[in-house]
Write the structure tokens for this entry.
Amino acid sequence: MDHTPEEGVVDDGQEQTDPDVIETVREQVIRRTCEWCGKELAPRARGRGRQRRYCSPAHRQRAYELRTAQERLERDQEAGTARRDDEPVREVVERTVTRTRVMRSPVQPPGLHHGDLYAPPEDPWEREPDAPGADPRPRELQRLLVRTAAAIAQGQMSVREVERIMRGVDAVKSAADRFHDQVRGNRH
């Protein structure tokens, strides 16, 4: 039997429905993964809002930032306020090199000298041996030692100079100890 479509009925590829039949289609997500990291998400209960797209608020924020950053970049590139991808990055670098050379005069060894900030106005050791008051006074020695200590503290002396000074201080200390022992011995 030859079957031909009835006249007036057009076959448009869609299934013809009976107007008396109501058809309902329901979809349910069975499994879903995070759109950022790919981790599997637990599906929501039926009818409880939109399905989750991200496993955490942090991943949702990262996806948003990436999406909007790309949009902003393209918008700024079109406006000419952002560098295009094919443009090289240029940078200007300023380099300043400072070299300081400390020159020590062979005539004037490092240390305290007349006119320096902590130098005594006059060196008591350079007096003429026959001049009156040739031996340095205790006050002058004390002033010289205090200034020497300040120069050492400020790093104005070398290790060798400090060692030489300490040998002199040790000699003075030994002499002072012997002197005190003698004075104590004369009292008793």
